[in-house]
Amino acid sequence: MRLDQRLIAGMITPGTRVLDIGSGDGTLIDHLFRTRGCDARGIEIDMGEVTRSVAHGLPVVHGDADHDLAHYPDGSFDYVVLQRTLQAVERPREVLRQMLRIGRYAIVSFPNFGHWELRLKLLTSGRMPNTAVWNTPWYATPNIHPCTIRDFLALCTEEGYRVHNWMAVDEEGERAPWRRSIRLANLFGEQALFLLGKESGETDENHHRVNTSRPDRAKKK
Amino acid sequence: MDQTDISAPVEHDRAVFPDGLMLDCGTVLAPVEIAYRTYGVLSPDRNNAILVCHALTGDQYLAETHPVTGRKGWWDRMVGPGKPIDTNRFFVICSNVLGGCMGSTGPRSPRPSAIGAQDDSGAAPVAEPWGTDFPPITIRDMVRAQNALVRHLGIERLFAVVGGSMGGMQVLEWAATYPDMVFAAVPIATAPFHSAQNIAFNEVSRQAIFADPEWHGGRYWEVGAVPARGLAVARMMAHITYLSEEALTRKFGRRVRRESMPPATPCTVAEPQSLSLFGEIFEVESYLRHQGSSFVRRFDANSYLTITRAMDWMDLGAEHDGDYGGPFAGTRTRFCVISFSSDWLFPTSQSRILVRALNRAAANVSFVEIESDKGHDAFLLDEPDFDRTVRGFLSGAAEHAGLECSVAKAEGIRGDGVVLP
């Protein structure tokens, strides 16, 4: 499992309901089920990955963040995870809204476009930067909505989301030391990882006291 | 046309329910007999049963030589020891649907009449068949009959219900009607409603049967006739919808049958005068005619009418203001929805409607579209990704159900390299 996935798993309370958007080969949901007793499910856009996941007994549906989240009922999950995908969706703001509608918490990771190497390459060459993380030419990249850590925080403020936890990690997923300073993280962090809730939600201290009852049950009969 | 031998007596295993069933139409159908086959061994806890539901023209002979046709079981490649639905592990049940003609109560069954009570042997040869007077049935009625059978076998909860096409409709009705009895559901190449296009195809099939001079208003047995041409045409038309353009092109292309070609002209452009204009010229025609003629040997026209109508009535949203998620509210069943990319009879778009409805019901659902050029019939044919999906889903579900040995066996299978590429 990638280290950033381990960090995500560390944010998730055992025994909760988790939806992983962009579940890939299903590593995270498999881990959450086996080691944390979570009811973890996935959505994946790549049919080959979906088939492999289901053939391993994992509950994964073919679908994507832009078109399929609207069909889930309010509050049907405790955590909704979006790994390294926010920059590639059609409507990132709407996807975040949907995540916090169907889930109590949203866990979002994305590559940080504010990293110093990108800034330097754009400044010196005058061309779209090409790095280990941003490694496809502008006309072929699926990353149509790149943002920086500060951009993301500004959107969270605008939308009234509460940041319960955040960290910047490098490409290999190692935890990076610039956790306390947003400005340093925005300069040196290759990947960003956020745990969000709604502003009206609980405080950081009790986020681990997640309600594991199923709200959808209430609607029955 | 081939000789028909559907009246040839074959003894089918069956369960008899003297009190019958209350049907959706309000009629009580009694007695009801359900012909079935089982494979594998029921565990002492009775928790390893899988019900497989057959499609429109299938029957209970799932994984063994068919006693009427002599051919392999229709899902022989899927069900058996070590196969994706592993009979070393699961107890597999398959029954002929209500309304069918392979031993279950249907239009060809004797109609209980006022003239004398039928004795237990049920073999009274003078009894008149139901024919077109057989009450209209629904997919849910078929499922009710299966439920009676499952309980008759002493099973209170099915580990899984699996089926393709009309079998998939039954899977959905099972999960909707008896949610606490279905741990896992695998609806394959199906939809939560029968589309206008599919009703239209069914109607053409029915009209072909009605147009046969041997139809005799549905009482063809009285004159010892069978509307074989009409039924064969219905089958030919339907068979086209089970395939795809790619599959037909790959199998037949524009190839002309050898004997149709004029001897001196080996090219495909034949002079029309030298041939019978409407004989079997193209290979695809020959194939379809064979499909039609072999079908009438094993199927009853009135059953075909009854069952196609049951499919037409299928609409899970009907009682929920058009919301297909309504019947699944609060469901705890684990679903695995599977479609095939070239299926135009039950296209992936309809599976997606089902998946989204299940999401609205907060159901635990997996959804895979298998890449295939074989059309709707792909679920009956060799598709390794499909096999892997079914096997893997069932293994995963067995683990969640706490079925004994499931983990060890699943890992054993993985170790053998059967599951994983």
UniProtKB/TrEMBL annotation, chain B:
Instruction: Please give the InterPro entries that the UniProt record associates with this protein.
Output: AB_hydrolase_1, AB_hydrolase_fold, HAT_MetX-like
GO MF terms here are: homoserine O-acetyltransferase activity
Instruction: For this UniProt record, give its keywords in alphabetical order, as a comma-separated list.
Output: Acyltransferase, Amino-acid biosynthesis, Cytoplasm, Methionine biosynthesis, Transferase
Does the UniProt entry include the keyword Transferase?
A: yes
The protein's annotated pathway: Amino-acid biosynthesis; L-methionine biosynthesis via de novo pathway; O-acetyl-L-homoserine from L-homoserine: step 1/1
- The transmembrane residues are none
Q: Highest taxon of the source?
A: Bacteria
* EC top class, as a word: transferase
Enumerate the catalysed reactions: L-homoserine + acetyl-CoA = O-acetyl-L-homoserine + CoA
Q: Where in the cell is it found?
A: Cytoplasm
The record's SUPFAM superfamilies line, in alphabetical order, gives:
alpha/beta-Hydrolases
Q: What is its EC number?
A: 2.3.1.31
Which residue range or ranges hold the AB hydrolase-1 domain? 48-381
Q: Which family does it belong to?
A: Belongs to the AB hydrolase superfamily. MetX family.
The molecule here is called Homoserine O-acetyltransferase
Organism in which the protein naturally occurs: Acetobacter musti
